[in-house]
Tyrosine--tRNA ligase (Levilactobacillus angrenensis), 419 residues
Amino acid sequence: MSIIDELKWRGAINQQTDESGLGDLVNEKAVGLYAGIDPTGDSMHIGHLIPFMILKRFQLAGHRPYIVIGGATGSIGDPSGKKAERVLQTMDQVHHNEVCLTKQMEHLFGQDGSFKIVNNYQWLSKISLLDFLRDYGKLFNVNNMLNKEVVASRLEVGISYTEFTYQILQSIDFLHLYQAEDVQLQIGGADQWGNITAGIDLIHKQEGADAKAYGLTIPLLLKADGTKFGKSEGGNIWLDPEKTSPYEFYQFWINTDDRDVIKFLKYFTFLDQDEIQELADAVATHPEKRLAQTRLAEEVTEFVHGKEAVAEAQHITKALFSGDVADLTASEIEQGFKKMPSVTVNADKKNIVEWLVDDTKIESSRRQAREDLTNGAIRINGEKVTATDIEIDPTSAFDGKFVIVRRGKKRYFLVRVAD
């Protein structure tokens, strides 16, 4: 199966500029191709990951992927998908974001020389204003630019000349990579179609109508309920473990709807057709086992964070389900209880009843605290506590940083111990 046929099977192709030409090209040679990302933030989220999964598939098939970090284009802003002008970042912030994104890409694509990261600031910053207007601006028809969906969608609210020129700059990227690196294919989201075709038009004007340059876009990924993929109730799911912990990342995929899980397995894993079909059969016959969701969470978490992160996430998940939290590390506590109710207390030892009422406010009154304790409804760090006259030492577990209180069967509280 060719890489193009595989992408079709995975439902990962929205549009191609020349389907037969691109199909022939990828069968003839190792093709140079690229996808870009502007450093508007210091981490990708899983929505950004989609085109780079396609790039990774080309890499594994023996092709030559390039990643363009938009140090120049990111400093002015892409109008795509925005209802208003972006707030321009300082160049120091742009540079910081470039460094962070580069590290993420190196983790995803490896450092074996089979791919290359470039920054369009390297060539776009060298073009003077007059050269830009004479050598490139002259080749772009304003009427055609206005008809591009990415620009047309902004005309009612207005668009600055800065963002209007974005498609010219991105077109220069494609031309530069075509000339300097023999890159013949650009990949992007569905909203990048106008920018990609503008780049191909520029290549044809500069290199001749028979120049082999192609574009491929990925469909907008929607969930079964019609909402856009990539966010949870708490917002974006980031690749940066400081923004979204590996446990939270794993849980996002575990909670995938049955109606979406096979589609996501095709998009975000490198499992073959036979294995994905087996998982599809499992969803149809035994959905309660959630085998497909578990495999999805394992595969994507390992790809983004590594095997150790998968084991850690599974350890936290098992502990929270069983209530046996005593074996968790302080780091795992930080991840697993990040969004649970929390309170900070001092490190002083105190009577358990007073501590539950006065220090943590977990119990509303001493009477209620005594009742819950004697009824066995309170667990401290996984252990059932029934005595009302004992003293609690907040520093006795988890490196002296946390106390985990469970009231009833499911209600957890994270008590942080002040330094």
